[in-house]
Specification:
By secondary structure, the chain is of the alpha+beta class. The strands form 8 sheets. An 8-stranded mixed β-sheet has the order 15-19-20-27-24-23-21-22, with helices on both faces. The chain has a 5-stranded mixed β-sheet with strand order 2-1-5-3-4, sandwiched between helices. Strands 29-28-30-31-32 form a 5-stranded mixed β-sheet, sandwiched between helices. Helix 3 crosses helix 4, helix 8 crosses helix 17 and helix 14 packs parallel to helix 15. It is built from 22 helices and 32 strands. It binds zinc ion (ZN) (2 copies).
Length: 697
């Protein structure tokens, strides 16, 4: 007699064993129609899973008209679609062997061995999709059956796929006491796959899908093992969602910072220099410098002190901070002190010995800094402080190095050396709340100037049941409250998450949605009770006694690399004038106007505007196209008539028509104003106050 508790707290009792489907049916026929699975006591299950004991059940539904679908429903649909794809591929290519087919964030893949047969080409997608559509049309049930591990292994041995045998062995090793199969239809007469499930109840529940790409992969991700073919697809509850997703994908591709970074020559990653080590080329360096100037000016207004520190520090420093020997796997190995190295060599120390010494942290040397904090702490500790000096705010665009797995590296968002917009605030307990608000103020100003209005804040609090946190609970309560209050002042959505705090203090994270609505996790502001303790930092209080300061780490934009990667995608490479590497290009209509183009160029550069002149032999239309490709915000087309009147004819990126002529001085004055105000003043409106513009969408 199971009693079922639903998410709204209501309960329903059943005479006999039941299933999520029966529960849905008991509520309404409509619900049963759109249910695709359930969470039973938190575990995602088939709709037909038997329930014999009391349980909490949340039905998972997929409705055609809904805008946002339940992520659980999408997961069930996507994994089920992987089965359908595998069946379709085996209909066309019966000899291929299946390996593993999980759901992904927006789709699914299946790893397949094509050994001994022709490799798969995306030209076959149409035929595969056709087969898939017919399997979905038939609305065949996903039927689960179970065998004992003995019978199951025997069946797999008979079938002879080493991949499925391996999957089963792993499942048994992980504690499974039986093996399960899912048949698309009826056992013994339809296609089946060894799988743990769960799935949607029938193929007809897979609403809309598309195959997307083929990649190569390795069995168990091991390059020395079998080569496999990974076929990717996407699936959604309904067509509209799929269409929206494909459109977003298309737009994302156009904005990909790796592609734009190359095209606009913003940065370069060079194999000879090293993976994940970004080279800022002149154009990208301008963007970074302008952004740093902007952040630097705001920091100055907030009374921060700029510091510079070296890229390495002694291992002892990191023993005190706790970064060494812990977290070794995410750092470059230490630079061993040359004297110690030759001493060890003369003692016959082997590579194995050396590696052990490193693991234990038993060597002398230096570390490429993984964090800036220890250096800043030593600056704070280098002179005595009274409570009257606090807060001390030390800021540095500090470059740090982390060892990221090579597979994780791509473009600007995952690198092995990066420069944080870092700062450390040393303050009294009472000052924490005010300092947090100051940190968030800065974020607000910068996001506003960059036109990033859609962002949210996540406040990470401690987990009440855990004892891993340092510092006394009363201080924690105060700091957590200060984080909440600071988040409140931003006027944007914020959430709090218990258990997300670091062990040394609560934190505030920033997540910004770019113009396509894609979320990007940026930096963080963190309260820290731990490092002041480890480094025995003090200040003299009004009572004349020593007290412990609190530290705040803040790098709200994360790193310059990541942030500018996000900005490239946000602006699709079309930076606002103040950030643009090349702000103005002067185009002479013909050779006759080259001298005047030079005059205009000189006048622009004299005012600090980043400008060039295109005086090549090409026709003016071609020059305009070239400049548009480089996303230069302003083009000044000059001919004999402009020269006579000291005018420039203006074209603006994003506006279709030629705006007409304006005096050179007016233009330069207005543009200088726009640049120095970082877009607050608009040159376009000053130069052409009464015009209507045809916007290029
Ligand atoms: Zn499955
Ligand atoms: Zn720090």
């Amino acid at each position: 007699m199971p009693t079922i508790t639903l998410p709204d707290g209501t309960t329903r009792s059943f005479k006999n064993d039941t299933t999520p489907f029966e529960i849905a049916l008991d509520i309404s026929e409509g619900l049963a129609q759109c249910a695709v699975g359930a969470r039973i006591d938190g575990v995602l299950c088939d709709l037909s899973t038997p329930i014999s004991n009391d349980a909490e059940v949340k039905l998972v539904t997929a409705r055609k008209g809904e805008k946002e679908s339940d992520p659980d429903a999408l997961e069930l649909i996507r994994h089920s679609c992987a089965h359908v794809m595998a069946e379709a591929i085996q209909r066309i290519r019966p000899a291929v062997k299946l390996v593993y087919g999980p759901a992904l964030d927006s789709g699914f893949y299946y790893d397949i061995s094509f050994e001994g047969s022709e490799p798969l080409s995306s030209e076959e997608f149409e035929a595969i999709e056709k087969e898939m559509a017919s399997i979905i049309d038939e609305d065949r049930p996903f039927t689960r059956y179970e065998l004992s591990t003995g019978d199951g292994m025997k069946k797999l041995q008979d079938e002879g796929s080493k991949y499925k045998i391996d999957n089963a062995e792993r499942a048994i090793e992980a504690g499974s006491d039986s093996l399960t199969w899912y048949v698309t239809g009826e056992p013994n007469s339809n296609w089946e796959d060894l799988c743990r499930g769960p799935h949607v109840p029938s193929t007809g529940k897979i609403g809309a899908f598309k195959l997307q790409s083929i990649a190569s992969s390795y069995w168990h991700g091991d390059a020395d093992s079998d080569s496999l073919t990974r076929v990717y697809g996407v699936a959604f509850v309904h067509k509209k969602q799929l269409k929206k997703h494909l459109k977003l994908q298309e737009e994302s591709k156009l904005r990909d910072h790796r592609v734009l970074g190359k095209k606009l020559r913003l940065f370069h990653i060079d194999e000879q220099v090293g993976q994940g080590l970004l080279l800022w080329t002149p154009n990208g360096a301008v963007v970074r410098q302008q952004l740093q100037n902007f952040i630097g000016e705001e920091l100055q207004k907030q009374n921060y002190s700029q510091v510079f520190t070296p890229h390495i520090g002694k291992l002892d420093l990191y023993r005190t901070s706790g970064h060494y020997p812990y977290y070794q796997e995410s750092q470059y190995p230490p630079l061993i002190d040359p004297e110690q190295l030759s001493k060890l060599a003369s003692e016959g120390c082997t590579c194995g010995d050396l590696s052990n010494l490193m693991k234990q942290g038993d060597i002398e040397g230096y570390l490429l800094k993984p964090m800036n904090c220890p250096h800043h702490i030593r600056i704070y500790a280098s002179s005595p402080h009274s409570y009257r000096d606090l807060p001390v705010r030390l800021a540095e665009f500090g470059t740090v190095y982390r060892w990221e797995q090579s597979g994780e590296i791509g473009g600007m968002t995952r690198v092995r050396g990066f420069t944080q917009d870092d700062a450390h605030l040393f303050c009294t307990e009472e000052q924490v709340a005010g300092e947090l608000i100051g940190c968030l103020d800065l974020v607000k100003i910068i996001f506003k100037t960059l036109g990033m209005h859609d962002y949210k804040v996540r406040v990470g609090l401690r987990d009440a049941d855990s004892d891993k946190y340092v510092g006394d609970p009363e201080k924690w309560d105060k700091a957590e409250d200060a984080c909440r209050k600071a988040a409140e002042t931003l006027g944007v959505p914020w959430v709090e998450e218990a258990g997300e705090a670091a062990f040394y203090g609560p934190k505030i994270d920033f997540i910004v949605n770019d113009v396509l609505g894609r979320p990007w996790q940026l930096g963080t502001v963190q309260v820290d009770y731990n490092l002041p303790e480890r480094f025995d930092l003090t200040y003299i209080g009004p009572d004349g006694k020593e007290h412990r300061p609190v530290m705040i780490h803040r790098a709200p934009f994360g790193s310059m690399e990541r942030f500018i990667g996000v900005l490239i995608e946000h602006f699709a490479g079309a930076f606002p004038t103040w950030l643009a590497p090349e702000q103005v290009r002067v185009l002479a209509i013909s050779e006759k106007s080259n001298d005047y183009a030079d005059t205009v160029l000189d006048a622009l550069r004299a005012r600090g505007i980043r400008a060039t002149a295109d005086q090549c032999d090409e026709r003016i239309q071609a020059k305009i196209r070239n400049a548009a490709d480089l996303k230069i915000p302003w083009l000044l087309v000059v001919g004999p008539r402009d020269a006579e009147k000291n005018n420039v004819s203006v074209r603006k990126r994003g506006i279709l028509q030629d705006l007409g002529a304006v005096s050179m001085d007016t233009f330069i004055g207005a543009l200088t104003g726009e640049i120095s105000s970082r877009g607050e003043s608009k040159a376009l409106e000053i130069c052409f106050p009464d015009s209507e513009f045809l916007i290029d969408t």
